Amino acid sequence: STGAYAIGLGQGCQENRLEGLKLYDLGGGGIKIGDIRMDRNATFPALPTGNVVSNCLITDGGIVHYSANAVWAGIVRDTQVVHNEIRRFPYSGIAVGWSWSNAPTSCGGNRIEYNHIHHVVSLLGDGASIYTLGNQPGTTIRHNHIHDNHQSRFAHQPWQLAIYLDEGSGHILTENNLVYRVGTHAFNINGGSHNTTRNNIFGPTHNADAPFIRCYLRKHEAVGNTITGNLVYWDGDVLIDSAWP
Fold first, then answer.
1. DSSP count for the chain of H helices, then E strands
2. Of 62, 88, 177, 211, which residue is least crowded by CB atoms under 10 Å?
3. Is the peptide bond prior to 158 cis by the omega test (within 30 degrees of 0)?
């Protein structure tokens, strides 16, 4: 049992490997990499680089601090979060990036791949199984299995998403993910640009009133995005929230 995050890798942490761990009964989140105070253009040696989280089970967290993530990584480079199972969190599963705009940052080259994420965002709203913030060229979200984010009747905004490219997330490749039975949106871009989203299977959501694919903020900045080759199944009224310029 922990009162907050189980493991934290702060500024200057390089080439660490966290493998084969079971983290459970967590007051906060599982693993934290970086620091919210990190300058978005940080460089070596302060910039966390080359850290790996793999083959871990991270479960039953956020017991005290509901807004904690199973894995949180801020301004980081070449981070791998791969082959993990993440389940039973009141807020987001994996969150990468900590820049609330589309300005260039040092964040990039991160891999979020082959994770099994389910029953997260079970209490709070405006979160996702996989959540990103800010420009991060070379980052990939691939081969993840995401399902069963159920809507919370307590959330002010009942958004329990699957893949959420929030606040200027840009230059990210999202491909070959399997998504079904999530609360609202299967995929969401919030003002980000030059993202490629291809060959995913986006299954039905619980909320038939929500648009299946959505860009909420700053549509005029959501340029150069490519959404192609996806298999989309929805049984609501709205596929896309509105025309994107």
1. 0, 22
2. 88
3. no
Q: Which two tokens stand for residue 10?
A: 């702060």
Return the beta strands (E) in 143-240 as ranges.
145-147, 160-175, 178-180, 187-189, 196-198, 201-202, 213-215, 226-228, 231-232
Query: Are the CB atoms for 43 and 7 separated by under 8 Å?
Result: no
Query: In 3D, which of 122, 109, 111 has the Cα closest to residue 70?
Result: 122
Please answer whether residues 136 and 170 qualify as being in contact, where contact means their C-beta atoms are separated by less than 8 angstroms.
Answer: yes
Average pLDDT over residues 20-28: 97
pTM of the model: 0.96
To which residue do tokens 């080259």 refer? Answer: 109
pLDDT value of residue 158: 66
SS3 12: coil
Q: Which amino acid is at 163?
A: I
Radius of gyration of the chain (CA): 16
Which residue carries 């070379």 as its tokens? 138
Q: What is the pLDDT of residue 159?
A: 81
